[in-house]
Predict the structure of SESN1 protein.
Amino acid sequence: MEEREGEVRWDGLCSRDAATRAAALDNIGQAVLRRSETIAPVAAVPPTRAADGLLVPAARDGLSEVLARLLMLSKRCPFPDVREKSEAILSGVQELGIRIPRPLGHGPSRFIPEKETIQVGNEDAMMHTLFADSFATLGRLDNVTLVMVFHPQYLESFLKTQHYLLQMDGPLPLHYRHYIGIMAAARHQCSYLVNLHVNDFLHVGGDPKWLNGLENAPQKLQNLGELNKMLAHRPWLITKEHIEQLLKTEENSWSLAELIHAVVLLTHYHSLASFTFGCGISPEIDCEGGHTFRPPSVSNYCICDITNGYHGVDEIHASPTGSIPSTESVCEVEALMEKMKQLQECRDEEEASQEEMATRFEREKRESMFVCSSEDEESAPTRDVSRHFEDTSYGYKDFSRHGMHVPTFRAQDYSWEDHGYSLVNRLYPDVGQLLDEKFHIAYNLTYNTMAMHKDVDTSMLRRAIWNYIHCMFGIRYDDYDYGEINQLLDRSFKVYIKTVVCTPEKTTKRMYDSFWRQFEHSEKVHVNLLLVEARMQAELLYALRAITRYMT
C-alpha cells in the first residue's frame, strides 16, 4: 500500500505504543493535508455538475484510496486515538471543500443487524485484546473478525492459525501464500477474500502481473490449479497420481512440505469463503462496495447503493431472528428439544446393528444429493474474479449423479486424529497442533443454550451437523446412527448447510433467515463455525490420504 500512496505510511498505526501511533498519525495528517491543498482550489471553483446533478468528487493522486482507508480506521480501529484522529483528518479535508467518503451498508454482516454485533469501542477486555492482536498483525480489523467475535475462544484459535499460515516461518514464500489464498477464494467467486489478499499480495512484494490471471503466475502455481478445483468442489476424486504429478514436475516441482502448506492454505480459504457467504459478510469499508463518495439522497437510499450490494435498511433489518417470538418458531425450538430427548432415550434402550447403521448412512448420503435450493434466488452481487482460476465450469457435483459411484470413505480407515494430524505436524511443524485445537474448539464449543432455553446439552445436535457435512463428502463414522440426522435437521436447515458448504456463492439472506428462526444470531454464527471446520477437515482428509498413499 505504501508505495501506491506515496508518502502516506500506515505501518506505525499497528504499534501497541501510543507515542508511535501518535507520530504516525501526525505524518499521515500532514501528507493528506498536502495532497488535499493541491486539489482544494479545483474543488473551490464553481461546482462542476455530473450527469446525475451531483458534485464530481476529487480523485487525483490516489487521495480517494487514502480517504477510504481513513474512513475504515475511524470506524474499525481498536485504538481510540487512531479512530478519533482519523475522523479529525477527514473533517479537515471536508472543510477544504473536498468530498469525503461515507460507509455503505450497515455493519459487518448483511444478515445480522448492526446493533446486534459487537461495536468497536464497546468490546470487553478479552475482545479488545483479540481486536488489538488482529489489528497489529493484519493492519485492519476485518468484518470476518467482527462476526466471529461472537465466539471469542474460537476466534483466538482461528487468528493464531491464520497468522501462522500467512506470516510465520514456513515452506512457502509470503507472496505465494497470499496468491494461493486468492486462487482458493476465487473458486467460489468470493471477491471479499480476493480483495483482501490482492492488497496483502502486493504489500509483501508480489508481482502485479500475476493478478491479470493464473496464466501470468509461475508454472509451479499454475500446476496447483487442478488440485485447487478438485479440493473445492469434488475432493473425493483426488488420487495419489495427482500428488505425484505435483511432486515430480522437474524444475516446477513442489516439495512435500510446500505441498502440505499449500493444501492447508487452499482448504482454509475454501472454508473461509463458506463462512463469508454463510454469514453475509459485507465488503470492507475501504474496499470496493464498502464506501461511496456520493452524498446521501433525501431518502437515504439511492441507486448507487443498490449497485454496491446495499439494499436498504428494511431489507437488512427485517430478519425474523431476534424479533418477537412467533408461536410457530417457539414450537420449532420445543419440537427440536423433544426430538433430542426421544433420541437419547432410544439410544439408551437399544442400539442398531452395524448393517442397519451402514444402510442408514447410504440412505442419508443418497438423500443429501436431492437437497438443493431454488437457484433463481438473488445472492450477493460479486465482482468477476474468474481470471484467478481456470475451468470456470468446474463446480460441485454429487457423488452418484450420472451413474458414477464414489466409494464411502470410512473414517476408521483414515482419520484426522490417527493419520492426518501426525502427517501435517511432521511436514509443517506446529500446524497440525493448531488445526487440531481449532477443530476441537469448533466441535466442542457450547454455552448449553438453545434459543431461549438454558442448561441444554447440545452435543447431539452439534454431532448431527458435523456428521451430515462429512456424509455429504462420503465420510462415514461406523459408530454413528445416521438416522438421527433426519430427526434433528429439517429441510430448510439442510438446504442452508449444503449451500454454504458446497456452493457458498449461492447463499441468500432468505436461506439464512429460514432456518432456526427463533435462535440467536450468535447461534447461527456458531453453526457456520461447525460448517467451516467440518468442511476443512473433510477436504484435508481426502488430500492427506492421497499424500499418504503416494508416500507408502
User: Anything to note?
Assistant: Confidence is low (pLDDT under 50) at residues 1-6, 43-58, 298-324, 375-381. The first helix runs from residue 18 to 44.
